[in-house]
Write the structure tokens for this entry.
Amino acid sequence: MDRRLYRLHVKRWLDAAGAFIGLIILSPLLLIVAVLVRLTMGAPVHFTQTRPGLGGRPFTILKFRTMRRSPGTDAERLTRLGRLLRRFSIDELPELWNVLKGEMSLVGPRPLMMQYLDRYTPEQARRHEIKPGITGWAQVNGRNAITWEQKFAFDVWYVDHQSLWLDVRILALTAWKVLKREGISQQGQATMEEFMGIGGTVAARAPGAASQPTRERR
């Protein structure tokens, strides 16, 4: 299939159909997880945050909560249930609603933080030429266990090479990676350290800056 035809027309229809079917099939699991999150972490059940979508335009991402609303590092706030949800990527399932709404795709670069937009190089910023995805080429090639530079290189490669068969391959590899529980977090981190731009580090933040209780960078 022609890549341009797939990107402009076919991909959206497959995304919508896949998200709709997924929400129906997974509805019992979604309900059970929602109840467990409510019982262990209280309200709200879902974590919402503004993320950059196609062209960097903001949208509200929907995920299951995995952290307590309390001061501390991500690792300290991550609950036992949250760790389990992340281990099997169950916390990402509500994003199927974002896909159904047309804000995301099943496959594409992961939507990161709004404040990263002005930290990208022009080449890295190309990851926003397409819709973000629930999973992507970077996720099946290391996820949070690779560097930011490697992750963005994989994202841009996908922008240039997306196709039906590549998406099928990524979805299949994602299922395999989830079962193997690979690349869930960066070494020494609950998820992944903050991206500070080329040559930047987390230490570049203002001294004494506190962790934000609603921040989940994945």
Notes: The helical segments are 3-25, 27-41, 74-77, 80-87, 95-100, 148-161, 164-180. The mean pLDDT is 86. Residues 3-204 form one domain.
